[in-house]
């Protein structure tokens, strides 16, 4: 409730002097703009292999866990060793995971088909665009630079940019503000329940992609719209942000 109250107060302050709003589309990163799962799993497996356990995660079968973060992948791998406790192992290996991932962040990672062109169309039509992710900010910045699309987004907020992360409202609010947009005329595109909870905390629409790690089944979270392909983003944006 506190986050929602903050969001409502922030929205009221976003009306520009001319009475208009700067319309903004906010994107999650992993599983929404780019398929990062294979590089994430490879980094976790590098940790296991360094300990002599071999590759404990499967790039296809464990794809969904990859989008829950490095610690989730490490926990899953260690759980397959039938250990009674392994949180200490997760803590010890997490810095190694980040190092492996940072050094190999774009080996297999690719933008989803049509994503770059869709963002370019939004910009050409006067929309602001931004990224709000639970990936550490430095890694997110590096990845966007390596993929050659960082300049398409007016702001990027990561998991450690602020004191809180999604689904708290603050990262989204700051993300839109830094992009020069208006929260009231914005929506979030994501691929997980965290994105839905974030949008609800702020009081904005949420769009979920059907091509992310969970596939079309993510519709179970009843978003305001489903995005099956980036070619449809223009139409969805016009509906959700219609003046």
Number of helices: 10
Strand content: 5-15%
The shape, in one word, is elongated
Q: Strands of the largest sheet, in order across it? A: 5-4-1-6-7-8
| pLDDT averaged residue by residue | 92
Order of helices and strands: HEEHHHHEHEHEHEHEEH
Note the main sheet: 6 strands, parallel
Briefly note the structural class of the backbone: alpha/beta
**Beta strands, count:** 8
Defining key terms:
single chain, 243 residues, alpha/beta, 6-stranded parallel sheet, two-stranded antiparallel sheet, 8 strands, 43% helix, 11% strand, elongated, disordered N terminus
Descriptive report:
This protein is of the alpha/beta class and 243 residues long. It is built from 10 helices and 8 strands. The chain has a 6-stranded parallel β-sheet, with helices on both faces. Strands 2-3 form a two-stranded antiparallel ribbon. The chain is elongated.
């Amino acid at each position: 409730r506190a986050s929602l109250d903050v969001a409502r107060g922030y929205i009221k302050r976003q009306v520009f002097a001319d009475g208009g709003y700067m319309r903004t589309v906010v994107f999650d990163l992993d599983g929404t703009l780019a398929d990062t799962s294979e590089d994430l799993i490879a980094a976790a497996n590098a940790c296991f292999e360094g300990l002599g356990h071999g590759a404990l995660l499967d790039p296809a079968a464990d794809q969904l866990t990859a989008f829950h973060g490095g610690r989730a992948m490490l926990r899953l791998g260690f759980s397959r060793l039938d250990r009674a406790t392994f949180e200490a192992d997760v803590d010890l290996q997490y810095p190694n995971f980040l190092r492996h991932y940072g050094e190999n962040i774009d080996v297999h990672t690719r933008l989803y088909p049509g994503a770059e062109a869709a963002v370019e169309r939004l910009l050409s039509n006067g929309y602001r665009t931004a990224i709000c992710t639970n990936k550490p900010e430095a890694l997110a910045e590096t990845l966007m630079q390596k993929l050659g699309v960082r300049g398409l987004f007016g702001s990027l907020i990561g998991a450690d940019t602020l004191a809180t992360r999604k689904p708290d409202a603050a990262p989204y609010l700051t993300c839109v503000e830094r992009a020069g947009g208006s929260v009231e005329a914005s929506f979030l595109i994501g691929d997980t329940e965290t994105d839905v909870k974030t949008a609800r905390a702020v009081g904005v629409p949420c769009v979920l992609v059907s091509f992310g790690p969970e596939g079309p089944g993510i519709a179970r979270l009843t978003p305001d719209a489903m995005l099956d392909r980036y070619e449809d983003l223009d139409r969805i944006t016009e509906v959700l942000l219609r003046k």
